[in-house]
Structure formats: structure tokens, C-alpha cells
Amino acid sequence: MRKDHYSLLSSLLHNHHSNRRSIQQIHAHLVTTTATCHPPPPTTLWTTILRHYSLGYSPKEALLLYKHHLHPITLFHGDSFTYAFVIKSCANSELPISGSQLHSIVFKTGFQSHVYVQTALVNMYVVCGCLWECRKVFDEMPLRNLVTWNVLVTGLAKRGEVTLARAFFDVMPVKNVVSWSGMIDGYTRVNQPKEAVSLFRRMVALACNYNKPTEITVLALYPAIWNLGSLELCQCVHAYGEKNGFYTTDIRVTNALIDVYARCGSVHSALRVFELIPSDEKNLVSWTSIITVFAMHGMAKEAVDSFKRMEEVGMKPNRVTFLSILSACSHGGLVEEGLVFFKKMVNESCIVPDIKHYGCLIDMLARAGRLEDAEKMALEVPKNMANDVIWRTLLGACSYYDNVEMGKRITSRIFEMERRYSGDYVLLSNIFSGVGDYVDSENVRRRMDQMDVCKLPGCSSI
Fold first, then answer.
1. Cα 25 to Cα 316: distance, rounded to the nearest angstrom
2. Cβ of 301: how many Cβ atoms within 10 Å?
3. Out of 102, 260, 388, 449, which residue is the most buried by the measure of CB atoms under 10 Å away?
4. Residue-wise burial string across 233-248, b where 16 or more C-beta atoms lie within 10 A, e elsewhere
5. Chain-centre distance of CA 431, in angstroms?
6. pLDDT confidence of 295, banded at 50, 70, 90?
7. E-strand spans in 76-199?
8. What are the CA-CA distances from residue 232 to residues 252, 261, 273 (Å)?
9. 96 with 128: CB under 8 angstroms?
10. pTM check: above 0.85
């Protein structure tokens, strides 16, 4: 096979690098011709295919490609990109054993000092949770660049090792926006919102061209703001985003801001942010966010109106949108509307309900006192989805409405799944005592003691 043919294949790979089908066709062509062609295909051709697989939906394919076709070649002619991509595939597939085997090959083939290959190893080990191996590779690297430091710091932060991540972060020779954003994200992940906010403030104070907060930084900070419930802080970050143009360049930041305002208790501000989004820029997430805001605050009518407005502009709801509107109907007492939305989801949108949709519907019916309908719906939940939460929701309604017979039936179903949750016994006991049947109420309490089921004491966070 002539070299100009390989040049043509390289050109095709370059032009169709994001087309999985085209990559697979070129891969198949190489596999069927490699055995008879001379000279063999250049390693760069294989590496381009390897890169596509390692960063795609099936990263294991990159490892298989290396194992079956590249291994004899790369022992002699591989380059740093070949190893970096195949190690990346191990990280994306979370295959630390395969990654460790590649580590040995890397050492044998002389890439133990190559910064890109070693950085790929650091990333693979930290992603797979092999922190000792990760530290060892990092400590033994003769040369580290900013990417190496960021891979280590952000990787540790994502795994919840924020103390260790912060220790490395503080001694970084140079930091950029990835370093700061990764550390802020780490604090929000482990529910340390004050540390996340403090680090963001420090980042803003020290901001320069290469470490100035970006849209990604703000998105990482948002969960910390709503965990603190600080409306003032939300307004400050909102103003910072306005000043830097975040809301005109990334709709994700605006959609998330709607949610943050709602969680901080300001429906008015959330609605204002939503209404200021240009009509042609509002996407399904925007509409779902504002519907969720109204659902969260018990404003069922407003949620329904927003859903209708969304449909009028041609936006089709997804399963998350339907979950939000069902939740709004449940908490707002709009039973008939909720049933209509559920039927619309199943019949018109052809969305198969999951356990959360069933849970909202059963809760809605139970709150309205329609216990028989709620029980019927609970019985229709597919067996592979059914769980004790559904039945406990219904049991709570039985306690509220003093429905003894249904309470006994539901408790029996719950006991088939879980017998050691104290709340089930307490609710059934309360149902009996609520109708004056103190004998059966006491029997339930006695059975609870015999089963050695302990009732957890209540506590307050005040």
C-alpha cells in the first residue's frame, strides 16, 4: 500500500474526527489491509483512531485497539500521544489494573520521564481512586507542568479529598482558573460551602488574566450559595456575572441562577432572571427551572401557567419537566390537573414513568384523601421499580385520614420489603390509637420491642 494512500486516510480522519461511523470504517479498512500491506500504516494513523475511541462513549475500544493491533508496533515505534490516549481510556473506563499494566510498558519503553505520559498516569490513578500510586507517580516526576498540578488537585477534589487537594493547591508554583475552579468545586461537593465562598472571594481579589473567574467557576460556586441560603451572596455573584457578561455567553449560568434564587427564597428574583432571557434563547432547561421554582414554593397555578406557555412556544417537555409539574400539582392540591399531565406524559410524549413520577402522583392522590386511587396507582407500579418509599407515603396518608384497614394492608406490604424501620410501627400504632383502638396500638408497640426495633430520637439543628 502506497504512502499517498495513508495520506488520504489521514486526511479523512482529520475531516471526520467526530464522526464515529467514519472512524470505524477507516479502522476496519486498516485492520483488513495491515497484514498484507507494505510499508505498514504509520503509528500516527492508529493514534488518531485511538484518540477518538479514548475520548468517546466507549473508551474500552481504545484499549482493545492497542491490545490487538498496536502493541507490537508501539513497543518500538510508539510516541507519547499513543500512550497518553490509551492511558486516558483506562481512566475513562475506570480500569486501574489495565492502567497499571500500561504503566509498566511505559517504563520499559522509556517514557517514564515524559511529562504528558506521566500526567496521563497521574490522572488515571486519581480517577480510579488509587491515591497512593497517584502520589508516587507525581512525586517521582522529574518535570511537572501546570496541567500535571491541575490533574492532581482537581482529581483529588472530585474524590472528596479536599484537605489533601488544598495542600497541593497551596504549594502550586502557578495557578490558573482550572486550579481555582476545581478547588471551589471540591469544597461544594463535600458540603463545605463557607470554604468554597472564601476561596472564590480570594480568587476575585487576586484575579488576573489567567485566573479570573469564568462561567465554570460560577457554576461550581452556585451549590455553595444555595447551601448557605444567602440571598445577599447570590445577588453579589449575580452582579459579578452581569459585569463580566456571563449571562449573555452561557445560558447554563442563567438557568442555574434561577434555581439558586429559588433555593435562597426569592421567587421574584428567579422570575425576573427568567423573564430577562431573550425568547429565542430560552431552552427547555430554562422553562423547567422556572416551573421547578413555582413547584418548590407551592405556587401550583403559576407552574401550570408556565407549562402551558412553554408548550405555546413549541417547546416539548421531557421527563424532568413532567416531574416538576407533577410535584407542583401534588403540593398545590391540583389533583385533576396532575392526572391530566401524567396522561399527557405517557400518551402524548411517550415517556415511560419512573419511580419519581409514580411517587408524585401517589403523593398527590394521598394528600387529597383519594386513598383508594392512590393504592390502585401504587399497585400499578412495575415490580422492578416498586420500593418501600411509595408505600410509606401512602401509610402516612392512612395515618392522617385514620384509614385502619388500608393501613394494615400497606404495612404488610412494607414488612415484606423492610421490617426494621421504626417509623412503620409508629405510624401503624398511631392509626389504631387515632380511632380509639388502644389494644392493637399497644400490640404494635410490643411487637416493635420484640423485634428489637429502636426508634431514633428526634433532634434539632437549632
1. 35
2. 12
3. 260
4. bbeebbeebeeeebbe
5. 40
6. very high
7. none
8. 21, 10, 16
9. yes
10. no
Residue type, 356: K
Q: Using DSSP, state whether 207 is helix, strand or coil.
A: coil
d(CA 129, CA 96): 9
Kindly report the CA angle at 71 between 70 and 72, in degrees rounded to 5?
95
Spatial distance between the Cα atoms of 455 and 329, rounded to a whole number of angstroms: 33
Measured between alpha carbons, how far is 242 from 229 in angstroms, rounded to an integer? 21
Q: What share of the chain is helix, strand, coil (3-state, %, to 5)?
A: 75, 0, 25
- Report d(CA 372, CA 338) in Å as an integer: 17
Cβ atoms within 10 A of the Cβ of 311, count? Answer: 13
How far apart (Å, rounded) are the C-alpha atoms in residues 155 and 160?
A: 9
- Residue whose C-alpha is closest to residue 139's, from 158, 154, 129, 152: 152
Cβ burial, residue 18 (10 Å; 0-12/13-18/19+): exposed
CA atoms within 13 A on the CB side of 391: 24
97 burial type by CB count under 10 A (0-12 exposed, 13-18 middle, 19+ buried): exposed
DSSP 374-390: HHHHHHHS-TTT--HHH
- C-alpha 41/C-alpha 412 separation (Å) is 68
Ramachandran region of residue 333, left (φ > 0), alpha (ψ -120 to 50) or beta? left
Taking CB atoms within 8 Å and a gap of at least 24, the contacts of 418-424 are 418/388, 419/451, 419/453, 420/451, 420/453, 421/388, 421/453, 422/448, 422/453, 422/454, 422/455, 422/456, 423/392, 424/392, 424/395
Cα gap 218→212, rounded to integer Å: 11
How far is residue 90 from each of residues 96, 99, 159, 425, measured CA to CA in Å?
7, 6, 17, 49
Please count the other Cβ atoms lying within 10 Å of the Cβ belonging to residue 275.
9
Residue 233 has pLDDT above 50, yes or no: yes
| 278 contacts: CB under 8 Å, gap ≥ 6 | none
Q: Which amino acid is at 24?
A: Q
| Residue in the structure block whose three cell numbers are 469544597 | 187
DSSP string covering 139-170: HH-S---HHHHHHHHHHHHHTT-HHHHHHHHH
Decide: 106 and 72 in contact? Cβ < 8 Å. no
User: For residue 54, which of 82, 31, 79 has the smallest C-alpha distance?
Assistant: 82
